[in-house]
Design brief:
By secondary structure, the chain is an alpha+beta fold. The chain is 52% helix and 21% strand. The radius of gyration is 50 Å and the shape is rod-shaped.
């Protein structure tokens, strides 16, 4: 129950109730004050008008003894200078002056008089007074209305509000609770569905409402997120399976050769065997190093970068490869190529591209570095068999190998180009395959934006 009271539904309903309650209370008080002021102002208008009428009658000498034009809740009286009542309304006929207050001057004044006789009772009146001069001398005119009717009206309205406001607030709370509950029900259902999804089955999706509202868009976003998680999990499982497969083959070969050598020790040439095993262990070491690099690269974020001359890296890697191959490595078209990045990662990218080109070239590997549309461009071309159009995206996948003759030539772990593209993307660039400008072989084109 306590958790329900801390829920969004309960908090929203409580907040709405507080806001509406405050608004209703302020509105009710304002209504009472406004209504009272309006009623008093209306009665004041009638009293002032009646005072003016009586003043005219006094001045003309036609003032009647009984004042008949006052309302049932009103009182009227005219008193001369000696304190005698000259004229009065029926409710106070035969009584003395209702007040000894003389306003003085020529302007009407108003006062609230308590204990004014009214038939057999006394009441509180709001009285307007004015001094007028008649034929027999000055007189004071009193005209007022009882505040009892105003109080009764205000009391009736106040009672209605005291009952009606809480009832209205309860109805509002019930409606708000119901509406918010219906609005949040799909969210709670999605929460339950997501809670039931585990890493063992990421193919499940939450049911998206038909309405294209905030809840519907939330469901779509959650399904997209689950799709990305499923794809990432699938890639991880495939990566582990491929890595296990790639490591199993060299380990099995090493084991088989060692078992044969131990079975026939007298017929084994240990020096050539050691060299062969050392070469295979070096290949396996390179594979493990590539796997570690990819795992670190997937988790890397916000690495520091510096200004690097890509052309220097290309020339250094080309010179390194010339010492180990008889192929021609042409660097005549290498010009300035400033980029912002990590030198070690860029060197690994260039090395992978060059080793891939050397592995497939027939006689020549051509390198070109230049600037193109605000980016530094590296083109690594070879005159080998080329990459089939259907395989141009597959060769960049981890452990990706196509079915073309080019792929059957190379062997390798299938991680070099995947690492190269990963580094390119980490530097905000792209790496792809384009049709060779010389009509044979393949050109890998790297573009990295030039940044100041």
């Amino acid at each position: 129950m306590a958790s329900d009271m801390r829920s969004v539904r309960a908090r929203t309903t409580a907040l709405a109730a507080l806001v509406v309650a405050a608004a209703l209370v302020v509105g009710a008080v304002g209504l009472l004050v406004t209504l009272r002021a309006s009623l008093v102002r209306s009665d004041d208008g009638l009293s002032r008008a009646r005072v003016q009428d009586l003043a005219s009658l006094v001045e003309s000498g036609s003032l009647p003894v009984e004042l008949r034009d006052t309302s049932d809740d009103g009182v009227g009286q005219v008193v001369d200078g000696s304190g005698h009542v000259v004229a009065a309304s029926r409710s106070i006929s035969g009584r003395g002056p209702i007040s000894d207050w003389h306003p003085g001057g020529e302007r009407m004044q108003v006062r609230t008089l308590h204990g004014v006789p009214d038939d057999s009772e006394t009441e509180t009146y709001r009285v307007w007074a004015l001094e007028a001069r008649g034929r027999d001398g000055p007189v004071t005119i009193y005209v007022g209305t009882s505040l009892e009717s105003v109080s009764e009206t205000i009391t009736t309205l106040r009672t209605s509000l005291v009952i009606g406001v809480p009832v209205l607030l309860l109805v509002l709370v019930a409606v708000t609770w119901s509406v918010i509950g219906r609005a949040l029900r799909p969210v709670d259902e999605m929460r339950s569905e997501v809670a039931a999804i585990s890493h063992e089955d990421l193919s499940r999706r939450v049911e998206a409402p038909r309405d294209n509202d905030e809840v519907g868009r939330l469901a779509v976003t959650m399904n997209d997120m689950l799709g990305r998680l499923e794809a990432a999990s699938l890639r991880e499982r495939e990566f582990v399976a491929d890595a296990s497969h790639e490591l199993q083959s060299p380990l099995a070969s090493l084991r088989a050769q060692l078992e044969v050598a131990l079975t026939y020790p007298d017929h084994t040439e240990w020096a050539p065997l050691a060299r062969e095993l050392l070469a295979e262990s070096a290949e396996m070491e390179a594979l493990v190093r590539d796997l570690l690099f990819l795992s670190r690269e997937d988790a890397r974020q916000g690495d520091p970068r510096a200004h690097v001359d890509l052309d220097d890296i290309v020339l250094e890697e080309a010179e390194r490869l010339r010492a180990s191959t008889t192929l021609t490595i042409d660097t005549a078209l290498v010009s300035a190529g400033p980029v912002l990045g990590r030198r070690s990662d860029l060197a690994r990218l260039v090395r992978n591209l060059l080793e891939n080109a050397v592995a497939h070239a027939v006689s020549t590997v051509t390198l070109r570095v230049d600037s193109d549309d605000g980016a530094t461009r590296l083109v690594v071309g070879d005159d080998g068999p080329g990459v089939a159009l259907a395989d141009r995206s597959r060769v960049f996948e981890r452990f990706g190998r196509g079915d073309s003759s080019r792929d059957r030539i190379s062997g390798g772990s299938g991680l070099g180009l995947a690492i190269a593209r990963k580094i390119a993307e980490r530097h905000g660039g792209t790496l792809g395959i384009e049709v060779s400008s010389v009509g044979r072989g393949t050109e890998f084109v790297l573009r990295i934006p030039i940044r100041d």
